[in-house]
Amino acid sequence: MKYVVLIWLLCSWAYAGTVFAKENISQQLDSKIESFLGAKSYTANKAFINIIFKNPKRFFTLNKIEDIKVIETLKNNGLLQLFYKHPRQLSVSFKTNGTPLFFIKLVSHALRSIGYYRYITKEVNSSLSSFVWTIDFTSDYAIDPTILYGALNKLGCSIVNVSLTDKTFWHYQIDMQNAHLSSVKLQDNLQVNLNRPLYPPWFNVSAIKKIQITSNAGNGWYPYIVFYDKDLKILKIRKINKKIAQISLNMPKESVYMKINDLYTLQNIGNGLKIIASGVR
């Protein structure tokens, strides 16, 4: 009889634990959904929310909510408000534990790639454990988190947490462990023809030893070339205050990225450049 009671108790505890786990998952998910929609919209659409999120486990990985999957589901079902009747000031904060300069460059590139050029830095906070960059901009629509996720993912970054406060302030926590700039990787004997650059072009030079840059006819190029390490710390700057038709350079030790510019204006290389890489590192 004692064994029967013991087995019954064990089964009861296991069942209770399973029920608690399911309730806990549902509560976490509901709380996250309400934070994205606001209390009023959440309450008004609770029946529909219960249907589209009927399997809460689909939105969890390793006991953590997949915020982007939640947002995408809300968006696809017409519940997420990203557009406003009138332009308003919006804020976005980006948090990471990576290198600040590299991080800002990556996020800026991602924002430009999805059409966001006009914003101002509202605040920068840095500590030993994290770095937070907050921007402000005025618009009648917020940045779509799912589109931003795609842009950052192309740069080796992943969004690990998203939150929304006051309906206009989005917060992103970003993992940049595998981050890299969107740049052409130069290889031995590779030739790149650069035509009418709108922005100073970046190149990955980690695999080569030397580079030759030729300015096309009709240019008036005053070279301004910067070499960076993997964290975008400047290693070397080469600038020449006279017109140059061709220049050859050795790659500095530990250089990973190179940016080509003009000392005065990109219009001076409006006809393009020819770049030839050589050597193997």
How would you describe the overall organization of this protein?
The protein is elongated. Mean pLDDT is 91; it is low at 2-21. By secondary structure, it is α+β, with helices and mostly antiparallel strands. The protein has helices at residues 2-37, 39-44, 46-52, 67-76, 100-113, 145-153; strands spanning 60-61, 64-65, 83-96, 120-126, 131-141, 158-165, 169-175, 184-185, 191-194, 202-204, 210-215, 223-228, 234-239, 246-250, 257-262, 273-278. It has three domains: 2-62; 83-175, Alpha-Beta Plaits; 184-278, Jelly Rolls.
Compile the SSE list and pairings.
Blueprint: H1 2-37, H2 39-44, H3 46-52, E1 60-61, E2 64-65, H4 67-76, E3 83-96, H5 100-113, E4 120-126, E5 131-141, H6 145-153, E6 158-165, E7 169-175, E8 184-185, E9 191-194, E10 202-204, E11 210-215, E12 223-228, E13 234-239, E14 246-250, E15 257-262, E16 273-278
Parallel strand pairs: 3-7, 8-10
Antiparallel strand pairs: 1-2, 3-5, 4-5, 6-7, 9-16, 10-15, 11-14, 11-16, 12-13, 12-15
